[in-house]
Design brief:
The complex is a heterotetramer, with two copies of chain A and two copies of chain B. Chain A is of the alpha+beta class. Chain A contains three helices and five strands; from the N terminus they run βαβααβββ. By secondary structure, chain B is an alpha+beta fold. Chain B has one domain: Molybdopterin biosynthesis MoaE subunit (Aldehyde Oxidoreductase, domain 3), CATH 3.90.1170.40. Helix content of chain B is 34%, strand content 34%. Chain B is built from four helices and eight strands. A four-stranded mixed β-sheet of chain B has the order 1-4-6-2, sandwiched between helices. A four-stranded antiparallel β-sheet of chain B has the order 5-3-7-8, with no helix packed on it. The two termini of chain B are 21 Å apart. The chains are: A alpha+beta, B alpha+beta. Chains in contact: A-B, B-C, C-D. At the B-C interface, helix 1, strand 2 and helix 3 of B face helix 1, strand 2 and helix 3 of C.
């Protein structure tokens, strides 16, 4: 599964994209798995209310199942316009 | 419908004219909104950097514009949004709507802007002498969605 | 503030660019509204003739724009309105507003349009093969004023 | 006093502008005076609810006094924009 990071999430984790092999059932499970890896992930995911997630380029939420998903992206609330 | 995501500058007037030229005289009302990089209150913004999510950006903008077309009577819709490095005074983005009714043209343009602010994957970073800061999302922008 | 009443065509894109060029990067939001001569449902409009009241027209437009500037935080306001003979597809008029806030820019532009429709001394006449008819004022246009 | 007519009021009365010598106290008095002159005036002023009046280029109403006014204009509801 491709995992993408944008804006300060990308900066905190230190990379824009990585391949992750995971059996995580939901986005929350994936977040827990990544946070357990290294401090920089734990720091980036410390406050989920400050984060948004997209599954296969559609906004989703942290309870959503990951089955069949090829691309997960984490980022802060958007500030376009 | 025309959705453009690009790094290059765009000519707001030329885009407005091109948009209006496609009009078939059924749509008497044309509204444009253009966003300009504002300088900070302190006057020391050097660069605004806009990051986006290639692929999702185009999908999100198309979805927002399609929803606008289903809600209002629109002849056409244009959305242009830049990414990359911009300076104060540069145009960041524009939307344009054409409709037989001015109310529809205005409302659809406001709808596009409200959704584009909070639902299209762009992130702004302000770079000054003192450093770089990601622009925080505003509660009022999220709240603006509730009226639609 | 720039108020223009003229018979000659105007270039909407060039006017929009000139308006935005005057901006000092304090106003991040620019809204334009352009009115286009709509063809009739029957598709047989030959000419739209717009009569106005020279002198009063400029006064009324200035008053409306001044009121908009007092109600909203606006960097600048532009109003252009043509008179004389126009064909379907021709641009009749445009307004533009610049503001630090998109809500202000949108509301001020809608206010200008609502007042311009019913309080500026212009009268439209539609000329077809079948004859000529003065356009009747719409109740909804008068009603639109009550929201301000 | 200059009296101006616009749109169908101008067409019905048959002229855009005329000088009127009058002692009329109000706009209504002036309307009555003009209507008494000729049928074309009476026809133009038949339904005052379909008319608007401006005094010295400011919108006014039919009860308004004419003292000091130099220019009166009659026209239908405006249809700009």
């Amino acid at each position: 599964m491709d995992v993408l990071y944008f804006a300060w999430v990308r900066e905190r984790i230190g990379l824009p994209k990585e391949k992750v092999e995971t059996q995580a059932a939901t986005v929350s499970d994936l977040v827990a798995e990544l946070s357990a890896r290294e401090d920089r992930y734990a720091a980036a995911f410390a406050d989920l209310s400050a984060l948004r997630v997209a599954l296969d380029q559609e906004l989703s939420d942290f309870d959503a199942p990951l089955s069949g998903v090829r691309e997960v992206a984490f980022f802060p609330p958007m500030t376009g316009g | 419908m025309r959705i453009v995501v690009q790094e290059a500058p765009f000519d707001m007037g030329a885009e407005a004219n091109a948009f209006a030229a496609g009009d078939d005289a059924a749509n008497g009302a044309i509204v444009t909104f253009t966003g300009v990089v504002r300088d900070l209150a302190t006057g020391d913004l050097d660069v605004m950097e806009i990051e986006h999510y290639p692929g999702m950006t185009e999908r999100a903008l198309t979805k927002i514009a399609t929803e606008a077309q289903s809600r209002w009577s629109l002849g056409d819709v244009l959305v242009i949004h830049r990414h990359g490095r911009l300076a104060p005074g540069d145009r960041i983005m524009m939307v344009a709507t054409a409709s037989p009714h001015r109310k529809d043209a205005f409302e659809a343009a406001e709808y596009l802007m409200d959704y584009l602010k909070s639902r299209a994957p762009f992130w702004k970073k302000e770079i000054t002498n003192a450093g770089a800061d990601w622009v925080a999302a505003k509660d009022e922008d999220e709240d603006a969605l509730s009226r639609w």
